[in-house]
Amino acid sequence: MTAAVRNGAASWLPRYLEAIQAERDAARNTLVSYARDLTDFADFLARRGLDYTTAGRGDIEGYLVEQDARGMAQATRARRLSAIRQLYRFAFLEGWRPDDPGALIKGPKRERSLPKTLSEDEVDRLLAAAGTRGPTEAERVRDTCLMQLLYATGLRVSELVALPLAAVRGDPRMILIRGKGGRERMVPLSAPARDALAAWLVHLDATAPPRPRPRSPFLFPARGRRGHMTRERFFLLVKDLARVAGLDAAAISPHTLRHAFATHLLAHGADLRVIQTLLGHASIATTEIYTHVLETRLRELVLEKHPLATAPGEPA
To answer: pLDDT tens, 115-141?
Structure first.
């Protein structure tokens, strides 16, 4: 019996998270998600007097039934089953268990919902709102820079708020992004994004602390523990901008701008492989969903605008 088994279930989760971080270079958010889902499963087992080491296939299936009864979304149940199956597969390969109780379980498939996006006019209204919302000139310049960079590059929120200052010095036409799993990619900047970036850098340089005091290494510094604007703060900022722009704030998030970036590129003839590279998707299958978004929008346009789309007797 291995040391992991002798120590019991308490050692499983931290050891597993260490392994996937080392082997896959998993991002912090990925590790937090795995830990949350597997801890929920462990709590369910504990209520049955079980743990990871003693649970069987029936217990995993019982957990899925309970999740359904609790009203958990299909996507959540599918994600949690995936985490459980990966944990037990790892445990089997490591010799922590002689069997793999999750191997043959088929759970709910994830629904592939189309991402919400924005029209080009709605994006223009959001970008314009960034230049008027803030009470100070510095906030308006910062907000404009944030929004222009997001729409010009399609960055993930975590990538945008943590951009290093060194990556954008010297009026770059392209910037290097370190994304999920440590994968690096180059993304181009539009002229409006470069102008907004230059204006924000002027403000940062003018307000930099005198030497030898250290300067923040981030493009969007903040006083918090991480040293840069948080994802949560930017999420609220985008909601505020949507309200200022007269848009439905409930339907708009930073990720909506990422979707708009991809959808608008595709609509203007960009190659799907190029969009995959710019978004930092590991698989082209992830990017292909934008073709469905475009197809849906084109179909709506035909039904709304084509002269033969109106029913007989209805006004055109």
So the answer is: 678 899 999 999 999 999 989 999 999
185, two tokens: 């990619």
Pairing between β-strand 174-178 and β-strand 184-188 as defined by DSSP bridges: antiparallel
Domains of the chain and any CATH numbers? 3-94 (1.10.150.130), 120-304 (1.10.443.10)
Cβ neighbour number for residue 122 with a 10 Å cutoff: 18
Annotated catalytic residues are: 156, 180, 255, 258, 281, 290
Task: Report the alpha-carbon angle 121-122-127, nearest 5.
Answer: 95
Quick check: 198 and 148 in contact, CB under 8 A? Answer: no
Instruction: Give the count of beta carbons closer than 10 Å to the beta carbon of residue 303.
Output: 10
| pTM of the full structure | 0.64
Point out which residues pair with 221 in neighbouring strands.
228
Rounded CA separation 273/1 (Å): 49
